[in-house]
Amino acid sequence: MTTLLKIIKYQLHDLLRGKWFIIYTAVFFLLTDGLFRFGGDPGQVSLSLMNVVLFVIPLVSIVFGTMFFYNSREFMELLLSQPISRVALFLGLYLGLTLPLSAVYLIGVGVPFMYHAGIMTGSYWILLLVGVSLTWVFTALAFLVAVLSEQRVKGVGMTIVLWLFFAILYDGIILFILFALEEYPLEKLTLILSMFNPIDLGRILMLLQFDIAALMGYTGALFSRFYGDLLGSAVAVLALWTWCATPVWLGYRAFSRKDF
Amino acid sequence: MLALRVIVIIMLMSSGLWANLVQVGSAHSQTTISGGLEVTEPGDTLLVHSGTYQESGLKIPHQLTLIGRGKPIIDGNLSGEIITITADDVSIEGFVLRGSGLSHLDENAAVRFEESQGGRISKNIFEDNFFAVYISQSENCIIENNIIKGLAETESRSGNGIHLWYCKDITIRGNYISGHRDGIYLEFVEQCVVAQNHSTKNLRYGLHFMFSNHNEYNNNQFDNNGAGVAVMYSRHVDMENNVFADNWGSAAYGLLLKDIYDSRITDNQFTRNTVGLYSEACNRIQVEGNNFANNGWAIKIMANSMDNVFTHNNFLANTFDIATNSRQNFNAFNQNYWNRYRGYDLDKDGIGDVPFRPVKLFSLLTEKNEPALMLMRSIFVEILDLAESYLPILTPATLIDEEPLMRVNQ
Predict the structure, then answer these.
(1) Burial of B340 by CB count in 10 Å (0-12 exposed, 13-18 middle, 19+ buried)?
(2) Chain B contact set for A54 (CB, 8 A)
(3) CA distance B113 to chain A (A)
(4) What DSSP element (H or E) covers A197?
(5) Cβ count within 10 A of residue A241
(6) Residue A47: what pLDDT?
(7) Any alpha helices (H) in B106-262, and if so which ranges?
(8) Which listed residue, A247, B177, B195, B258, has the most CB atoms within 10 A of its CB?
């Protein structure tokens, strides 16, 4: 445990020295602040931020995550020559990246919200939750790819393909399925399909927070009824958690067997 | 001053000039309204003083003027109808009418006009009634400046605020109606004017037209109703200067049109409705000078609508401007302002040089396959819409505004 904490602490120092994090914070901060100055009402700001969160966070997390893992190669080799468990090292690297990334996101979006809006509305909490969850999920995927692929270029390429798949292609596949199975009742299917993509899950959870859900007619009603009650929210959180835990676990398995 | 007035009234009464004023109140010989009604002759005035009268089933068979002084309350105790009028030229003013009986067999109203002419209901307050005002087979009646509040909870256990059936030349003006099933309901009604009413928080429709030709409604406000306003199976309806707002829900409409012919919809405001204007099987409607702002869909027009003209309307910040369910389009869109329009105007005549296509691909897809709405605001959909807007393949080729306005039409 102490080794884990030590590794996280070292990672924090290392990351905070880079300019990267300052830029990442500044982007969120300026964006949120600017949206408040132009738009005003917190609901609208959350809705505009939603698109950015769903687009930028997965991309940054997955690309930055792989780069970070490759760059830590020598550090890992050094530590592995010491009597340190591989779990501690892998989780230390993972948490050492996800914790500051999440914190930076929370600060960048949260601080302007606090001094502009004051009270936090439901949609705002969901925005934070979705942002943090996506950070964790896509960093985990990044680590998985980086462990599996020795070659840097191939790894980064794969993460971009993965991001493309979740951010864009998956929705195309959904649309294709919905039209291919047009004759059948599809409401339950859409619900299930939404679980298999963390970005879609985040998007739907956020949309349901806005009265835009009424536009979604019967589908929207079904979604809000499902995700609105306790069981549904539990399932959604569980799904996001699974999306994060599975790649971490798979990544660790590969990492523990990896021959450095 | 009061003494003088009393003296004058007594003199008038005794002199026989204004002979037949019957007074009802605790300080008068008649203490009940039904008792007072019995002694009236045609053409009399019944003056009811303040107090609570637990009465229902009052029948008015001859011409009469009922005046409430000091807001007397007639409480029907939820049993049957309160006042039923079967004569001409009856007027009712200044009462508080409460508690007409809920029934699944009879349409019990606080005030019912039956085969009557020249009736008038004004400045009354209706509270917690099943139906408040019910007018059937009557002509030339006026319903004005009433406050009508119901306690409707479910559609099957509530009646309409103002209900007209087989009527002609009725004016409904300046009423406030809330908490009923339909705020105003018109069926088989001709030449009516519905003006300056505020119909809000009703369970179903704020205003509901059925089979009613040659009517007009203007300057009304309809907001927060369960499903907005519905106009069905009617011809020659004029709708002007109304506000349709905040009808938000999965089956709510600002204005729902079904089988409407030869009508005009001008200078109305459609704001924050799930669907601003829904048109099904409507022909030859002129939609002009309306504002559509912050709706989910500004207009949903089904392909069975033909020869409708949409011109000089403003479309501002709607999620979807126009949705339709077909590639065919038989309606004209011309010189509207679309805030989504990104064209230019080289000759500075205020009309954009590039045509505007108001139907997004995604709105067409969702119209055909509703579950696709789960992809709303997804990046993939934005890309599809963008591609389609540059190279239209699937969206209706003729649903196009050839002369989009560059500035908001005032």
Answers:
(1) middle
(2) 379
(3) 40
(4) none
(5) 13
(6) 80
(7) none
(8) B177
Residues B240 and B184 in one domain: no
* A70-96 average pLDDT score: 89
Distance from A91 to chain B by nearest Cα, in Å?
32
* Structural domains in chain B (count): 2
Residues in chain B: 410
Q: Of B314, B322, B319, which Cα lies nearest the Cα of B410?
A: B314
Looking at the predicted structure, is the pLDDT value of residue B12 above 70?
A: no
Same domain, B171 and B232: no
Measured between CB atoms, does B372 come within 8 Å of chain A?
yes
Contact with chain B for residue A52, Cβ under 8 A: no
Quickly list H helices, chain A: 2-17, 20-38, 42-71, 73-80, 86-117, 122-148, 152-164, 170-180, 187-195, 198-207, 217-228, 230-257
Which of A98-112, A133-147, B384-398 has the largest mean confidence?
A133-147
- In chain B, the residue whose alpha carbon lies closest to the alpha carbon of A193 is B374
- What domain range includes position B282? 227-410
Give the pLDDT of residue B397: 81
Neighbouring C-alpha atoms within 13 Å toward the C-beta of B247? 34
Domain that holds residue A69: 2-257
Residue with tokens 């997390």: A61
Q: How far apart are CA B9 and CA B21, in angstroms?
A: 9
Query: Between residues A162 and A215, which one has the greater pLDDT?
Result: A162
Mean pLDDT within A24-32: 90
Interatomic CA distance for residues B45 and A218, integer angstroms: 56
CB atoms within 10 A of CB A159: 26
For residue A211, give the nearest of B248, B297, B377 by CB distance.
B248
CB B110 within 8 A of CB B132: yes
Contact B205, B251 (CB under 8 A): no
Choose one of B189, B224, B259: the last residue of a domain: B224
For residue B96, list its beta bridge partners. Answer: B73, B125
The reply to whether B94 and B240 lie within a common domain is no
The full DSSP string for A102-124 is: HHHHHHHHHHHHHHHH-SPPHHH
Q: What 8-state DSSP symbol labels residue B100?
A: P
Parallel/antiparallel/unpaired status of strands B198-200 and B176-178: parallel
Which of B224, B247, B267 is the last residue in one of the domains? B224
Is B126 inside a domain boundary? yes
Nearest residue, CB atoms, A187 vs list B297, B371, B378: B371
Whether residue B196 sits in one domain with residue B107: yes
Name which of A37, A50, A60 is nearest A160 in CA terms.
Answer: A60
Query: Which residue of B250, B368, B378 is in closest CB contact with A171?
Result: B378
Mean pLDDT of chain B: 89
* B200 and B80 both lie in a single domain: yes
Q: Is B19 among the domain residues? A: no
Please report, rounded to a whole number, the percentage of residues in chain A having pLDDT higher than 90. Answer: 35
Shortest distance, CA A186 to any CA of chain B (angstroms): 7
Question: Is A182 part of the contact surface with chain B (CB cutoff 8 Å)?
Answer: yes
Tell me: pLDDT of B17 over 50: no
**The amino acid at A77:** E
Q: What is the least distance, in Å, from the CA of B388 to any CA of chain A? A: 15
- Among left, alpha and beta (phi > 0; psi -120 to 50; other), residue B157 is alpha
Q: Are residues B302 and B320 in the same domain?
A: yes
Per-residue pLDDT tens over the stretch B70-106: 999 999 988 889 999 999 999 999 999 998 888 888 8
Q: Are residue B80 and residue B220 in the same domain, yes or no?
A: yes
Measured between beta carbons, which residues in chain A are less than 8 angstroms from residue B318? none
